[in-house]
């Protein structure tokens, strides 16, 4: 019976929810990275496949297993040791969009919370300030706004669908443009990246972090945004030049931001973004909900079974 190592740092309930998707004829071995490294290595040596969930993968575990497939349950892969994976010639697959519902919901949550000054309103109401901070001039609705989606992969498309349901006009930019039929079905307009930033009332970022996309949202692009515009990032913090974002917010060159991710994580307590009322923050938790675990796990284990039967994995990424 082939073994699958589930490499994780989860509490038992989440581990069980993932592992219950183990296909017939396979066995899941749990490798908790919080345990002794020598025990992790010994367990990895008994496995053919690695599923990685919610943690970084120790190099020693990867070397000990030499898996036929490294299946990650996240969308992004910037935390992997790419050079070692290439050296060992290990194929890697991500979750194939299995958490796109969770992340797109969270994106809408942040955008709406920024538009409606939700955190400030909640704090004011709890403190007895019934009429503040909303004054009838500083909260907005999505209907009729132009929202720019930067990156139109699995998550970007789900976000676009949700935006259209709020009667927003949605435009997008991606290095790989959709077909005309896809654009029409999603109600999307393609524009260049400069036009996206110049003309959008809100920008939401959904591209992977690779060397070419680090600080893709540059000081220059931020400088072209409308002073009434806001930006949301539920992808990776380093996609945005954070120091430039701080300057833009401090100097009222843009109106606000909703951030689930930061350049340094956990976010440093003295990060100026944490002190700004016009910024709403969450702890890189967009994809972390109960419903997503089962969807991620089902995809990941099915991919392992696919490879074991001689088929090519879905969600294969270029490391």
Explain how this protein is built:
The protein is α/β, with parallel strands linked by helices. It folds into two domains: 116 residues, 3-Layer(aba) Sandwich (Rossmann fold); 182 residues, NAD(P)-binding Rossmann-like Domain (Rossmann fold, 3-Layer(aba) Sandwich), CATH 3.40.50. The protein has twelve helices and twelve strands. Helix 3 links the parallel strand 3 and strand 4. Helix 1 crosses helix 12, helix 2 packs parallel to helix 3 and helix 5 crosses helix 7. The longest helix is centred in the C-terminal third of the chain and has 19 residues. The mean pLDDT is 97.
List the helices and strands and how they pair.
Elements: E1 3-8, H1 12-19, E2 27-32, H2 37-44, E3 49-53, H3 59-65, E4 69-72, H4 82-88, E5 92-93, H5 100-115, H6 118-126, E6 146-150, H7 154-165, E7 169-173, H8 180-186, E8 188-190, H9 193-199, E9 202-205, H10 219-223, E10 230-233, H11 242-250, E11 256-259, E12 279-281, H12 290-308
Parallel strand pairs: 1-2, 1-3, 3-4, 4-5, 6-7, 6-9, 7-8, 9-10, 10-11, 11-12
């Amino acid at each position: 019976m082939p073994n699958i190592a589930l490499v994780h740092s989860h509490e038992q309930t989440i581990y069980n929810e993932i592992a219950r998707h183990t296909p017939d004829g396979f066995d899941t071995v749990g490798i908790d990275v919080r345990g002794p490294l020598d025990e992790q290595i010994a367990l990895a040596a008994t496995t053919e496949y690695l599923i990685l969930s919610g943690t970084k993968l120790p190099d020693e575990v990867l070397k000990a297993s030499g898996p036929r497939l490294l299946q990650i349950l996240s969308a992004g892969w910037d935390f992997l040791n790419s050079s070692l994976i290439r050296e060992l010639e290990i194929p890697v697959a991500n979750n194939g969009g299995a958490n796109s519902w969770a992340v797109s919901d969270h994106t809408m949550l942040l955008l709406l919370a920024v538009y409606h000054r939700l955190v400030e309103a909640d704090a004011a109401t709890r403190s007895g300030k019934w009429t503040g901070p909303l004054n009838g001039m500083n909260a907005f609705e999505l209907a009729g706004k132009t929202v720019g989606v930067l990156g139109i992969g699995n998550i970007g498309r789900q976000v676009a669908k949700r935006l259209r349901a709020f009667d927003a006009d949605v435009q997008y930019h991606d290095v790989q443009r959709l077909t005309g039929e896809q654009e029409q079905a999603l109600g999307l307009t393609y524009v260049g990246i400069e036009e996206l930033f110049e003309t959008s009332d809100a920008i939401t970022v959904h591209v992977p972090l690779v060397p070419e996309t680090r600080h893709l949202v540059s000081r220059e692009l931020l400088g072209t945004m409308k002073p009434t515009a806001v930006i949301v990032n539920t992808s990776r913090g380093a996609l945005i030049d954070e120091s430039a974002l701080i300057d833009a917010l401090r100097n009222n060159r843009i109106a606000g931001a909703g951030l689930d991710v930061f350049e340094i994580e956990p976010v440093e307590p003295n990060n100026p973004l944490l002190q700004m009322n016009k910024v709403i923050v969450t702890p890189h938790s967009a994809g972390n909900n109960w419903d997503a675990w089962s969807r991620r796990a089902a995809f990941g284990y099915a991919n392992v079974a696919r490879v074991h039967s001689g088929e090519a994995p879905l969600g294969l990424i270029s490391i």
